[in-house]
Structures are given as C-alpha cells and as structure tokens.
C-alpha cells in the first residue's frame, strides 16, 4: 500500500516540480502538492533579479496538486505565504506524512502544527547552514526555538554537509537525516546537450563572440555575495596579460549590481565581457551547453543551484 504524502509548498518552483513529477510515477508514494501561491505560473517582479520572472509552461503538469485559498492573490514569493483553508484541505486528503520547507512562511508552520495535532509524520527540508554571520542574540534565540521545533520532526531531508552540520547544531541526531535531492530539470538539460553544437553557434552569434571563442559562464543574480566582480577581474587580466584574447566571460543574470559591474568591465577593458541579462529558465540549458567553463565565484551560497 502506497504511503500518502502531502507536500506543502509556497509556490511552484522550477527546481522541485520535476521531482514531484518523478515521485508521482512511483508505486510506493501517493503524492499531492499543496501550493499557497501562484507565483511563477504568473509573472512576478523578482526584487533581487530586478526583472519580471515567469517559469516555463507546464510546470505543474504530471503530478497531483492543488492551489489553496488565496493562492491567486500572492504572486511575490518573498511575501509571507499563508492560507485560510490549509488545515481543512489536509484533513480532506488525510496524508500519512507532511513535507514542509523551512519555518519562515506561515503556511509551513501551519502544516507543521497540523501534523502534530493529527499525529502525522513530519518531513523537513531546507537549505539552511551556519556559514553566514549572525549576531549572538539571533544565534541564542534560534538555538532555543529550533531545538524545540526540530524535536518534533521525524525526518530531515538534507542537501549537503553544511546543511547537516546546521541540524547537528540544534541536536538533530544523524539517524533522522536522509540525504535528499536539490533537483534539476534533467530532461531539458539532456535535450540541450543533444543540440550542443547548434547552441554553441547560436549563443556566440547572439553575443557577438567568435565561433572559436572560449566561453566562461556565470549564472546567478548580480548581487555582491555572488562575486561576479572577481570573475570579471580574472578574465580581463588573462586577456590583458596572458594573451588570452579568445577568452570571453558571459554573465547570465541581472540584479542590483549590474551597473557597477558594467562600469568595472568598461574600466578593465570590456572586450571580453558579455552581459546576457536575465535569462528565462527555458533558455538556460542552451547557455550551459554553449559554455566551455562554468564559474561560480560566490563568497557565500546556501546551496549553489547553478552548479
């Protein structure tokens, strides 16, 4: 008999929907995803990207799902997501276990306390880590609160060593941790790889790069902690001092630091720097296929999704 699992998520995310689709095909799990927002299906303005974002069509196809009350009115996932009918819908579905993503959103906390009241198992997933600076008061508050909350969680779906170290700091035993996926849309990438020569040619034409040019690619929001400035300095220096005139840096992404990075590139010599701007997720596989080198210079990243 299949185990019934309810996943309570803020909104459809391009990294996770392919996983839901794959899980829905298994016989061991009966899955339903409850979304608290339509962000991503409908365009929304991403403050960090500084651009309007909309994920690819068909994102929620292939798995059982439901949009909760009020989902149509919340199209910015940075806004705390809540729903008035979450408990009623979970009661109707009657899952054996509930998976939540962190505690920031009221919808996640609501699912957590619903599971405790109904004596259902709780699966917890996040990309939290202890590598970023936090004040002593914040650390003390989190140590007290998270230790209590985590004690009621049945399984932690972890995504790496730093994530597991975070849980260990709050007294989560190793036998409650299960290494999990931070998934990708593997099918889209495989299609792009099959057409790699075509993408290499097209992207080079689009960005005015010679067909035999060597492309180093960065993918991410143009914000300080991503450190695209280091990649710009490195490529400019190689071109200037080492005679690597055939090396080009392509920055896929947008954000608050774009103007400063463009000024830096112009100062250092921008012949080898290309700003592609915000690239829709449907087009990213083509950029990966066209690139020769992936550069991820971030100084701090909870989980580098580009990699």
Task: Considering the chains and any ligands shown, give keywords for the structure.
307 residues, alpha/beta, four-stranded parallel sheet, 13 strands, globular
Word description of this protein:
- The protein is α/β, with parallel strands linked by helices and 307 residues long.
- It is built from 10 helices and 13 strands.
- A 7-stranded parallel sheet has the order 5-2-1-6-7-8-9, sandwiched between helices. A 4-stranded parallel sheet has the order 12-11-10-13, with helices on both faces. A two-stranded antiparallel ribbon has the order 3-4.
- α5 (161-169) links the parallel β8 (155-158) and β9 (177-179).
- α6 (186-194) crosses α10 (284-290).
- The model has no long low-confidence stretch (mean pLDDT 90).
Provide the succession of SSEs: EHEEEEHEHEHEHEHHEHEHEHE
The count of DSSP E runs of length 2 or more, i.e. the number of strands, is 13
Percent range for helical residues? 25-40%
Beta percentage is: 15-25%
Distance linking N and C termini: 37 Å
Task: Enumerate the spans where pLDDT stays under 50 for 5 or more consecutive residues.
Answer: none
List the helices and strands and how they pair.
Elements: E1 3-9, H1 17-24, E2 29-35, E3 44-46, E4 51-53, E5 65-67, H2 86-93, E6 97-101, H3 106-118, E7 121-125, H4 136-150, E8 155-158, H5 161-169, E9 177-179, H6 186-194, H7 196-206, E10 214-219, H8 228-241, E11 247-252, H9 258-268, E12 273-277, H10 284-290, E13 293-294
Parallel strand pairs: 1-2, 1-6, 2-5, 6-7, 7-8, 8-9, 10-11, 10-13, 11-12
Antiparallel strand pairs: 3-4
Helix pairs in contact: 6-10, 7-10, 8-9
């Amino acid at each position: 008999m299949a185990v019934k699992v309810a996943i309570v998520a803020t909104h459809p995310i391009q990294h996770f929907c392919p996983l839901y689709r794959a899980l829905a095909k298994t016989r061991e799990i009966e899955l339903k995803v409850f979304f608290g927002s339509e962000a991503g299906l409908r365009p929304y303005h991403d403050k960090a990207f500084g651009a309007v974002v909309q994920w690819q069509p068909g994102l929620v196809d292939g798995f059982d799902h439901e949009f909760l009350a009020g989902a149509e009115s919340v199209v910015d996932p940075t806004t705390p997501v809540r729903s008035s009918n979450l408990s009623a819908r979970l009661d109707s579905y009657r899952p054996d276990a509930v998976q939540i993503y962190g505690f920031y959103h009221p919808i996640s906390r609501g699912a957590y306390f619903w599971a405790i009241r109904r004596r259902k198992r709780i699966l917890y997933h996040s990309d939290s880590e202890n590598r970023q600076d936090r004040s002593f008061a914040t650390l003390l508050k989190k140590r007290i609160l998270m230790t209590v909350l985590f004690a009621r969680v049945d399984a932690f779906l972890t995504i790496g060593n730093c994530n597991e170290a975070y849980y260990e700091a709050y007294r989560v035993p190793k036998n409650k941790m299960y290494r999990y996926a931070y998934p990708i849309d593997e099918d889209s990438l495989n299609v792009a790889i099959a057409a790699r020569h075509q993408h290499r040619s097209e992207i080079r034409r689009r960005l005015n790069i010679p067909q035999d040019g060597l492309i180093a690619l960065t993918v991410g929001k143009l914000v300080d902690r991503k450190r695209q400035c280091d990649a710009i300095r490195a490529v400019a220096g190689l071109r200037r001092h080492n005679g690597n005139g055939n090396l080009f840096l392509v920055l896929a992404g947008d954000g608050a630091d774009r103007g400063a990075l463009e000024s830096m590139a112009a100062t250092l010599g921008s012949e080898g720097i290309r700003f592609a701007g915000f690239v829709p997720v449907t087009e990213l596989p083509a950029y990966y296929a066209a690139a020769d080198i992936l550069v991820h210079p971030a100084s701090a990243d909870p989980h580098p999704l580009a990699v």
